[in-house]
Design a protein that fits this description.
This protein is of the alpha+beta class. Among the domains are: 114 residues, Zona pellucida, ZP-C domain (Immunoglobulin-like, Sandwich); 107 residues, no CATH class. It is built from eight helices and 13 strands. The strands form three sheets. Strands 1, 3, 7, 8 and 9 form a five-stranded antiparallel beta sheet that branches.
C-alpha cells in the first residue's frame, strides 16, 4: 500500500511539472532592460563592393517621458598607417521612426543610407544619441563599434586569353535578292516607257523634254500694265469717291510699266525726272504730254487733295491705256521664205 501511494504521488508531481513547463513554453516573454533608455546599432550588411549602398540603423528603447535626439556625427576610416580619413558619404538621412511598445516603453529608430567609393575597412564608431529625462541630459553610446569592409573586383591577369575567332561571312544566295531585282527592273522599264511617251507627245507640239524644266519667261511689260488697268477699272474707285486710291493706283501702274519697259527707276523718281529720263526714248510728243498730264493730276489729288470731275477721271484712264498701247514694242512679223524655182521652172 505504501509503495503504491508513493508511486501515485510521484506521478501527480511529474504531471504538474509537465503542465507548468508547457504553459511557460507557450507564454511569450519579453526581456526586461535593467534601465532605460537602451541604445543599439547595426548594419544591413557588413561587407560591400565599392559604390554599393548600405543602411546603418540606430535604435533606442526608451520611456515615453524621455526625449531622444540623434546628433549629426562623422564616420571615419582607420587605415593601416593609423591615419583617420573621412570617406563615408551619407546619401539620405531618414527621419526617426517611433514604434509603439508595451506600457510606457517604445522604440525610436534612426536610419542612414550611405555609400563608400574607396576600398578598405571602415570603423563607423559607436552609435550615439542624446536623451533628456527631467533635469538629466546625457549621451548614450552603443556597447560595440560597427565595422564594414569595402572590397573591389579583382582582375585575374594570369588567366589565359583565347584568340579572337575570325569573322564569319554567310554564303550569298541569288534567290535572296531575285525578287527585289525583278521589281526594280520592272519599275525602271515603266519609267522609261512613260518618259518616251511624254517626249513623243511634246515632239508633236514642237517642244522638247527639257523645255518642261525651263522657267517660263515673264510676261511683257505692256501686257502686265493692260491687265492692271483692267482690274483698276473694275474696282470703280473714283465712282465711290475714292479719288486718292484711284490716282495712286493709276500712277503706280504707269511707273511700273516705264520701269520694266524702258529700264528706268521710275518708282523712285518725281514726275519731272521721269519726263527727263524719257527724252531719249522714241515716244511721240502726244504720249509724253498725256503722261505728264496723268502724273501731274495724280500729284494734285494725292498731295493737294484735289477732286477731279468724272470726265477727267475717265480721260485720265484713257490716256494711260493709250500711252501703254502706243509705246509697247512693235512685233516684227517673220516673212515666209518664197519658194525657190526648180530647174524645170527656170527652163
Amino acid at each position: 500500500m505504501k509503495l503504491s501511494r508513493y508511486i501515485s504521488i510521484l506521478f501527480i508531481a511529474v504531471l504538474l511539472s509537465a503542465v507548468a513547463c508547457s504553459k511557460s513554453a507557450t507564454t511569450k516573454t519579453t526581456p526586461l532592460r535593467d534601465k532605460y533608455p537602451y541604445i543599439s546599432a547595426y548594419l544591413d550588411k557588413d561587407s560591400i563592393k565599392i559604390g554599393d549602398r548600405f543602411v546603418y540603423t540606430i535604435e533606442v528603447e526608451r520611456d515615453v517621458m524621455q526625449h531622444i535626439v540623434f546628433p549629426t556625427f562623422d564616420f571615419e576610416r582607420a587605415s593601416e598607417e593609423g591615419k583617420e580619413v573621412s570617406s563615408v558619404e551619407i546619401i539620405r538621412d531618414f527621419e526617426p521612426d517611433t514604434i509603439k511598445g508595451e506600457g510606457r516603453h517604445d522604440l525610436i529608430r534612426k536610419r542612414y543610407e550611405m555609400v563608400i567609393f574607396d576600398e578598405g575597412i571602415y570603423h563607423l564608431g559607436r552609435g550615439q544619441a542624446l536623451y533628456v529625462d527631467k533635469n538629466i541630459v546625457d549621451t548614450l553610446f552603443t556597447d560595440e563599434e560597427n565595422t564594414i569592409v569595402v572590397t573591389t573586383f579583382r582582375i585575374d591577369s594570369t588567366a589565359v586569353l583565347r584568340p579572337l575567332k575570325p569573322q564569319m561571312w554567310p554564303k550569298f544566295y541569288f534567290g535572296e535578292i531575285s525578287g527585289y531585282l525583278a521589281i526594280a527592273i520592272a519599275v525602271i522599264a515603266l519609267l522609261a516607257l512613260l518618259i518616251w511617251l511624254l517626249a513623243r507627245h511634246l515632239h508633236k507640239r514642237g517642244k522638247r523634254l527639257r523645255d518642261i524644266f525651263k522657267t517660263p519667261p515673264p510676261p511683257p511689260a505692256h501686257i502686265v500694265a493692260i491687265e492692271a488697268l483692267e482690274r483698276l477699272k473694275n474696282q470703280k474707285l473714283w465712282q465711290n469717291s475714292k479719288h486718292k486710291q484711284y490716282y495712286s493706283a493709276l500712277s503706280d501702274i504707269l511707273r511700273t510699266y516705264i520701269a520694266n519697259a524702258f529700264s528706268i527707276g521710275a518708282m523712285e523718281m518725281a514726275t519731272d525726272e521721269i519726263i527727263e529720263a524719257l527724252q531719249d526714248e522714241r515716244i511721240s510728243q502726244k504720249s509724253k504730254m498725256d503722261l505728264v498730264s496723268i502724273l501731274r493730276d495724280a500729284d494734285l489729288v494725292k498731295f493737294a487733295k484735289a477732286t477731279p470731275e468724272a470726265e477727267d477721271n475717265e480721260l485720265a484712264f484713257d490716256k494711260a491705256y493709250y500711252f501703254v498701247e502706243e509705246t509697247k514694242p512693235v512685233e516684227v512679223e517673220e516673212k515666209e521664205p518664197e519658194d525657190t524655182p526648180t530647174k524645170n521652172e527656170k527652163r
